[in-house]
Amino acid sequence: MQNRVIMLVDFDYFFAQCEELRSPTLKDKPVVVGVYSGRTAESGAVSTSNYIARKCGVKSGMPLFLAKRKLEGTDAVFLPVDHEYYEQISSGIMRILRSYANSFEQVSVDEAYLDVTERMQGSFEKAKDYAQKMKTETKNIVGISFSVGVGPNKLIAKIACDSQKPDGLTIVKPEEAQTFLAPFPVDGLLGVGKKTAAKMDSLGIKTIRDLAKYDTQKLVAFFGKTLGVYFSNSANAIDNEPVQEQGEAESISRIGTLKQDTNDLEFILQKTDELIDDISKEIAEKNLSFKQVAIYAVMTNLSSKSRSITLEQPSKDQLTINKNVKELFGKFLNENPLQVRRVGVKVSGFSREEKRQKQLTSFFQTG
Ligand code: TTP
Ligand code: CA
Q1: Is 267 helix (H, G, I), strand (E, B) or coil?
Q2: Pick from 143, 145, 18: which is nearest to 87 by CA?
Q3: Cβ-Cβ contacts under 8 Å for 359 (sequence gap 6 or more)
């Protein structure tokens, strides 16, 4: 059988990089994106930070007051998370990545696996240029950088990607895979948390090399058949998990900034029509029907509001979106005196039947 060629793409310091993208002056300052709990102005935790802030010791999960202390005396900027915006950027990148893959699996807002075996005809040399091209295209079109790991399976691709960040490109060929893995601590493997790592440590297993050499039967005795065999395989760089599309997204949305703040329905609809064009393309590509249409508006004072409507019948039709968005914004503008700055459109409620049908079809195609 031919070698597989698998890539893992992981966007660099993602939420903070998105913030730099919309405010480029942030680029040479420490940037911290946090979730504010609202109890006091300072309480909450760091979601992520750019690499300048990380150099000062800021880490994901850290209380915000501690991050503030670490960045005292710098021109650090603290911002609240804006998930809608990050998802918007993410779906733009995912669309580019998907076009590079034979099969594609998005694992989170900033990570995806690509199986490119067929396109690369199994060649890791080709894969290097291909990944570079993908990085350059994404940087040019979306303005975001990411790191890529390339390996013969998902396990190696992931660890390769994590080994060089940001803006990394790490290739591990099949014949190098075991040597590559050997020096990493066991908790680098998926499924090895603190508890398991401690148990392995008590068996004298610290690195993946130690685990690879350990008798599989003994591992089975300690961890049970499934986990024991899995650990042994992983440590020996064996991983046959396929790259496969996860269930369809729960919703598809686009957001855009208006050329000027306004209350004018026609002006807003010009923008939402553009967004709807884009949404419709994605709906058509994925062959979906939707049952809800929603609008989203960010006002001049940066407060945001949304409104939605549920259709009587599922629809695939672009005009249905246009019509409902017009109605929703018409009502919304009547109720809201503030001027609108950014607008968004979201469709959701994709029908179950459709999804099952799709799963069956892909089952028959691959089976
Ligand atoms: P990560 O990929 O773990 O981190 P990152 O993209 O910020 O940085 P890098 O990959 O360059 O190391 O997480 C992706 C996003 O998930 C991150 O931008 C913010 C969010 N996140 C949290 O909200 N809380 C967390 O504790 C972590 C780890 C991430
Ligand atoms: Ca990331």
Answers
A1: helix
A2: 18
A3: none
Ligand 1 pocket, mutate which of 20, 60, 145 (most atoms under 8 A from CB): 60
Give yes or no for residue 193 CB within 6 A of ligand 1.
no
pLDDT > 90: percent of the chain: 84
Question: For residue 36, what are the CA distances in angstroms to 42, 76, 79, 300, 302?
Answer: 7, 17, 9, 21, 16
Two tokens, residue 108: 């989170």
Q: Is 167 left (phi over 0), alpha (psi -120 to 50) or beta?
A: left
Q: Are the beta carbons of 81 and 35 closer than 8 angstroms?
A: yes
Q: Residue 54 Cα, ligand 1 centroid: separation in angstroms?
A: 12
353 C-beta neighbours (distance < 10 Å), count: 10
Mean pLDDT of 137-157: 98
- Of the CA atoms within 13 Å of residue 109, those in its CB half-sphere come to 14
Q: Distance (Å, rounded) from C-alpha 161 to C-alpha 165?
A: 7
Closest protein CA for atom 5 of ligand 1? 13
Could you give the C-alpha distances from 42 to 33, 36, 47, 59, in angstroms and in order? Answer: 13, 7, 14, 16
Better-predicted residue by pLDDT, 352 or 167? 167
Backbone angles phi, psi at 197, to 5 degrees: -60, -40
Q: How many Cβ atoms from other residues are within 10 Å of residue 85's Cβ?
A: 18
Greatest alpha-carbon span in the chain = 72
Q: How far apart are alpha carbons 144 and 167 in whole angstroms?
A: 10
Q: How many helices (H) and strands (E) does the chain have?
A: 15, 12
**Is the beta carbon of 232 within 6 A of some atom in ligand 1?**
no
Residue nearest to atom 20 of ligand 1 (CA): 47
Using the mean position of ligand 2's atoms as its centre, give its distance from the Cα of residue 11 in Å: 4
SS3 (DSSP) at 47: strand
Task: With CA atoms as reference, report the closest residue to 208 among 229, 221, 192, 224.
Answer: 192
Q: pLDDT tier at 41 (50, 70, 90 boundaries)?
A: confident
> Of the ligands numbered here, which is closest to the C-alpha atom of 168?
1
